[in-house]
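Lecture notes, unit on binding sites. The following record was shown on slide 14. It pairs a sequence with nicotinamide-adenine-dinucleotide.
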Amino acid sequence: MRIAVLGTGYVGLVVGACLAESGNTVICADIDEKKIRHLTKGKNPIYEPGLDRLLARNLSEERLRFSTDIGDSIQSSEIIFIAVGTPSDTDGSTDLKYVTSVAEVIGDNLNNEKIIITKSTVPVGTALKVKEIIAERIHQKCHICANPEFLKEGTAVEDFMRPDRIVIGIETGDDHTRAVLEELYSPFIRAGDSIIFTDTTSAEMIKYTSNTMLAVRISFMNQIAALCEQVGADVEVVRKGVGADPRIGHSFLLAGAGYGGSCFPKDVRSIVKTGEQYGLDMSIPRAANEWNEEQKRVAVGKLVDELGNDLSGRIVAVWGLSFKPGTDDIREAPSLVVIPELLSLGAAVRVHDPQAIQTAREILPPEVDFINDEYDACTKADALVILTEWQQYRRPDLRRIHDLMASPLIIDGRNIFSLSMMQERGFIYHSIGRAVVRPK
Ligand code: NAD
């Protein structure tokens, strides 16, 4: 099939590469000329495991190409994926300006009957709104489809290639779109029942409900962690005990320095706004969002408890800038809250991340010191704050870190070390929802 993917970001690029890999002819189109120039030369602008290999193979075998000519990409394709960004507006609702603008371009270039798919995460009613925008510009039949994406950065290729479910919202009686998408997705389906066909509104709701449910679980466990600290319980043990109940399960129960990323924060805010539009107070997602905003400050609070709130003359090392391991994406990451707060308290801040230095450099204040080696970042540091659980941070040489630091204080926002080990190694060790450890 001939496919255009409009918007070549974390989602569009993976979707385009995976669909090309399964034999389709794909154009990934974007208005960002620099990005397209890099991609055309075989340079991948994002870090996503497994993606480089797919891009290289499909480029060289000419199933995949990149373009800034959105109109031509639309005209020469049968299926159009909209994968542009849907950031938060200032009031928390979803800013649909990119979706609207791309819908207008589709309307201006629809030269025959095509299937238009909203792949971006969009509030209820958006797929039908896209159809309206197109209809206002051209009298040409088109099929609209809401097909939210569930891939996770860090395992995006694997997630797209082996999805646990594919949700496809179509209009009543649109058997054509149903048949085409069944064929398109057939290479990725192991069990015959993993495609869920529904109406466009329910498809849109499934995406927001999934992300909100996961965010609520995280914020709930972070609140439980705060209570554990007060009552003297250990949230890690509580989590294991609770997760052993099969009705609850173990996933998304990890307490930590708060959730970030390009999805959960904005999608939770968006569903709260959607509720408001319909006169419903979405108090549960609202509380999850509010708790998370505060949770991002917890690591700084613990540091201040140890060092006081004047950090001038102090050096603080930060490990982990991306919102989670396996990605260079720093959107709404806890590091973006923690680092400016440390700077405002007067600290000199030295940061390390295995992949996100480049993306972070563009956003963090210029006084932040970016260090290529995680041990170098600890040299003469008064504290080390860990914000992302990258694999290489899980088993570091703690003796070396202890020797390098001016004082052996670690604030672990991801609970990656055991309390007994940290005590044995002579650290002052704060984590989330567990007792503070001090050297014997
Ligand atoms: P992104 O910001 O990485 O990429 C969006 C791209 O769209 C950018 O390259 C931008 O230049 C391009 N763009 C903007 N306007 C355009 C236009 N008119 N024509 C062509 N391109 C245009 O965003 P992302 O992380 O890929 O997310 C895209 C959508 O997918 C969002 O709705 C997001 O919520 C959703 N989503 C993201 C993830 C994720 O893990 N990142 C997962 C599932 C769903």
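Take-home: The longest strand covers residues 2-6.
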